[in-house]
Every structure is written in C-alpha cells, then in structure tokens.
Description:
The longest helix has 20 residues, at 3-22. Helix 15 (358-372) packs across helix 16 and helix 17 packs across helix 18. The strands form 3 sheets. The protein has a 7-stranded mixed sheet. A 3-stranded antiparallel sheet has the order 1-2-3. A 3-stranded antiparallel sheet has the order 4-5-6. Helix content is 43%, strand content 10%. The protein has 21 helices and 13 strands. Strand 9 (380-383), helix 16 (387-400) and strand 10 form a beta-alpha-beta unit. By secondary structure, it is an alpha/beta fold.
Amino acid sequence: MPLTEKFSLFVVSLVFFLMLACSSDSSTGGNADGSTADKHRESSAPAVLDTVRAPLYVFEILAEHASADSAGGALDTVRIALEPSGANILTLLSRPRVEQLLMNHVPMDSAVVQAIAETAAAFGVDSFQLSTDYDAVVLAISALVQNRYSKEETENFIRNVGEDLKGDGVWNDPNLKIQVADWEVGIDSIWRYNDIRNNVVSVYGGNVPNFERYMRGFIPLAYGFEPCTDVNAGKVTYVNQGQSALFANDYETSDHSAVRFICDVNNKEWRIAQPMEKDTVGFGVGEYDKEIREGRVIHDNYYIYDAGTWRVATPQEADGFTDLVEVYANLKPDEKAVFVIRHSERTDDTGEKGHLTDNGKKYARDLGARLAAVGKEDFYYGYSGYTRTQETCENIALGKGQSNYSLDVLSYMDGAWYVKDEDKVDSYMESDGGGWVVYSKYAFTGAYSDAFYDLETRSEQLLKDNVLANLASMKRVNVMCTHDFLVVPLLAYTTNGHANVKYYEKWKWVNYMAGVAMIISPDGSVRYIPVKGLETGVM
C-alpha cells in the first residue's frame, strides 16, 4: 500500500499519536534542558545527541492537511491531480511548481509528473528510484525535511523549499541543503535511523520501508561530491563549504572538523570514512618495515607499516621507534649497522664535562646487557667528546661485558653539527621558546635558515662523508653517542619528516638513548630505522 493511502487510514490515530509523542517538545525545537540542537554544530563530532523526532511533525502537518478535507473543504483541481490518494511530502513540496508549469501551458498530468520528479531530484533521488521504491523515498524526504526542526520550522521549510522549486524545478539554496546534510551526517554517524523507524512504526503497521539509503544519498548532493562510481571507488574527500559544521580548510587540517567521506568500494555510496581509511589514504608503500606515521587527519593516531601493510600502531609502537636490540637481533650476517643515539640520562650540568646520572649509567648498562643476550660480538664505539656521551658508550660496553673495544672522539658527533651561526641560534632559542622548539622547527619546517645549514646537505655530509667513509675502520656493529640537537634533525631527514619529535607542534622530544640505525647492505645501500634504547623513543 503506498504511503498516500496510509494517511487516509491513519489520520485520527496519527494525530493522537503525534500529540503524545510531541507533547514534551518546545515550540523552538530545543532539547529538554532548554538548549538548542545547534550547539552540536560547534563540535567536529557530527553525532546527533538530542531527541530525534523526525518525521513526526511532517506527518502531523500531513494529517492536518487531510483533516481539512474531511471537514468539507473544497478541493481545487491542482490538489485533486496531485493527491489522488492523499497528500505526502512530495505533493506538498511540488504544488508551487505544478502551478508554475500550468502557467507555462504544460498539461496538468505532465506538470504533476515533472514537478514530483524535480522535487525528488532536489533530494538526490532519480526517477527510477522514485518509481520503484516510492514509499522509502517519501519517508526519507519526510525525515530530511523535518531534520532537527520544530513543527513551525518544518512548515516554514516546506513553504520555502516549495517556493524555491517553483521557478525552475531546482532547489537553489545551498545553505539550507548543507544544514540538512550536517544533521543527516549526525544521524548516520551513530545510526540514529532506528529512532526514525521507531517514530513511524505504527503508521506503517510495523513494515517500515528501507529509507536509509535515500537519506544518505542526500549527503553528496548537498556537499557537492562527485558521483561515487567504480572510477573513484576508495577516494576520500572532505567538506569544503564554509557554511557546514563539517568544513575543513584542506584534507589534513582538522581543527574545525575531522569528518571525511569515502566512496565505498562495495556499495558505490559516499559514507563517513573510518579513522584508518581517512588517516592512511595516500600512504602507499612504507619506506621501511615498522615505519610509523601519524594520521593524515587525526594527528594523534599513529600507524605502522608491518608485513607489507599499514595497521594501527600499539601505544608502545606509536612513538615511531623500534627497539634497538630488536634491530640488532634482525641484522643479517652480511649487513652492518651504525647506531647514532643520544646519550643516556644526564645531570643538570649541560656543559662539556657534565656526567650521567646514576640512573643514566644503569640505563646504558641495561641496554648493553640486552644486546649481549642477542650476540657476543664486539662493537665499535664513538662519542662526541662530551663526558656524558663517553660514559654512555662505556656503560653500554660494560653491560655488554665488552672490555676490549675502541672508543674514539668523533668530531662529527658534536651536537652543534647542524649549526651555521651559533650566535643566531642562541638568539632564536632565547626569543622563540628554547632549544627544543628551535631545533625541531628547523628540522621539520626549514625555519631559521640563516642560523642552520641546509638539512639535506648537512645530513648527507654527516652520513656519507663521515660515517660511511670511515666504516672500513669500524666493526660490523657500531654505536655512536651524541646529543639531542644532532639526533632530532637527523631523524627528520632520515624519516622524510615523519619522526614523532616535533616539539614545536606536538611537544614530543627525542628520549635518552634514542636515535637512528643505519643498516648497510653488502651492495652499499643504506636504510634508516628510528631506534630506542629505553621503553619509549620520545619524552
């Protein structure tokens, strides 16, 4: 039975039902606490948390429309043609357009068919869907028309949209469409469609049509997305209309809204993208196994490249650093490794003669002991010339049980390796929030180019002209202890800016005994892995 006939059967019961259902609502469409639903528009989270009453007011308006007939009101010819079995939301919205078409000398039957088709199209429904799934289409449009509105607002919406459609059969108010779409996204995000079903179950005798897809179909129409097809299946996009509560300046900016939409590969429909879908789109193949990247949209989410695919990183993995001992354990017999790491925990003396704390010495010995549990080979050690870096190397060797080893001062391990103008660096550190801010901003954004060397050029000089150039005089496994001011820029370079030590932005800094592993293959190729000697690579 079509929806229009149902209204003839349910007028009296529907009016009574709606009076009960709506009695607690205010005339302004607010929540029970007096606040308005629009408060949810301030949040990036789209969920509709207030009571969902749609499409009860639309049905009440239609019931009153039908009651006027039974009271003896005369029916005009347009209404008779539009509502042969009773009114529904499509007929109410279409009437002004029918009247305009008649004025343009379009025959009545043609005007009715055209107006209803144009009205359905204004909500993203095509003629085939309208003819084959009429009841579901009508219910979906009824819910969209009411959305979060009060009864009075719903009546105004019907009147305004009808007048908008009147001239050319097109709904020309993008702002109003976007408001409705924002509400629909909130319904869809936590599947509040069941609320709508419960609202109308008595009207449909328990057999509520599957209207959900037609409500979802309105979203791409309102936001101006291209049709979802095989060609763009899997594409993820964002809302770029500034009127929307879900507006984003660009794909990766989420300060206003983190909601993104994906063209579903299976259903060929736009839907809200899940965190991993929107965060990892465009990642491609990882640059190395166990690479960590932050989410493209939700920047506090982290993903790891593991066994040829991206997955959500565990909290332990999310700092982006692999356990140094694990890297050593997986080193192939014909590979060499150079671990360039920050010294262990130091005292408050940051001068050249500053020592490690007792804890710092223990941390280094513990790392050595864990390395010894994997292999008994001797390591080569180099340090910056500072006491704390020397003590770090010595305690790693002590924990490893290694007494016969080389320990050389390496000038290229100095913490000022990237500094071009020390006076300017000191000035920036004083004015811009300290060394961690300045060095991380330089490393990841290229700031302070007058004070620092070019990151790529200077890093290549360090890695190729110094470390690799002297590899023949070292051993298969080598540990070089340096400082955070060298390690952070080196991490930025070797991870293409993905390392999670952007203190200027994320308040994350490299931890003690964390740094970069250089893995050198027999053919001379090098891969880089961020490594940690403690539980976490950041602090």
